């Protein structure tokens, strides 16, 4: 069994996918727009003018697959009560990932040494997703 994250970007999915491609090397493995659905979608389920919005996408960051959609394309995604965690190979990679994810976002906890990691920080990206970036401590 696997648990996978599904992120709803409320109309900003394609922008988010491009941002993650540049920031963390995400690779989009599948993307389907509402207009490409093999089954007609009821008009009350998709806002007018959303035919080109992303109905479903899958993307990989490293070995992890995530899924995403524009959802109801209301314009403002809200992500509360969770964070995505990235393990970096070393402090230089942690800094690069942290800075890239923080572009246009907000630092919640600066990247620095903690008792469990030589480099740990928390940053909310421009879409409102909280990321925890860390270098795992040697055992």
Offer a concise description of the structure:
The chain is an alpha/beta fold and 139 residues long. Helices cover 17% and strands 34% of the residues.
Protein architecture, described:
Residues 3-133 form the PhnB-like domain. Helix content is 17%, strand content 34%. It has two helices and eight strands, in the order βαββββαβββ. The chain has helices at residues 13-24, 91-102; strands at residues 6-8, 27-33, 54-61, 64-69, 84-87, 106-112, 119-124, 130-135. The chain has a four-stranded mixed beta sheet with strand order 1-4-3-2, with helices on one face. The chain has a four-stranded mixed beta sheet with strand order 5-8-7-6, with helices on one face. β6 (106-112) and β7 form a beta hairpin. The longest helix is centred in the N-terminal third of the chain and has 12 residues, at 13-24. It starts with 5 loop residues before the first strand and ends with a strand. The mean pLDDT is 94.
What do we call the CATH topology of the largest domain?
A: Signal recognition particle alu RNA binding heterodimer, srp9/1
For the biggest β-sheet, the strand order reads 1-4-3-2
Q: What gross morphology would you assign?
A: elongated
State the end-to-end distance: 27 Å
Looking at how many chains there are and whether they match, the oligomeric state comes to: single chain
């Amino acid at each position: 069994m696997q648990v996978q994250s599904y992120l709803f970007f409320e109309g900003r999915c394609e922008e988010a996918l491009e941002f993650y491609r540049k920031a963390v090397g995400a690779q989009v493995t599948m993307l389907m727009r509402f207009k490409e659905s093999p089954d007609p979608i009821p008009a009350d389920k998709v806002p007018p003018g959303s035919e080109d919005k992303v109905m479903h996408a899958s993307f990989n960051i490293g070995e992890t697959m995530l899924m995403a959609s524009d959802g109801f394309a209301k314009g403002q995604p809200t992500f509360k009560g969770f964070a995505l965690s990235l393990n970096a190979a070393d402090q230089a990679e942690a800094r690069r990932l942290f800075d890239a994810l923080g572009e246009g976002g907000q630092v919640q906890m600066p990247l620095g040494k903690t008792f469990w990691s030589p480099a740990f920080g928390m940053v909310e990206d421009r879409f409102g997703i909280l990321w925890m970036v860390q270098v795992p401590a040697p055992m």
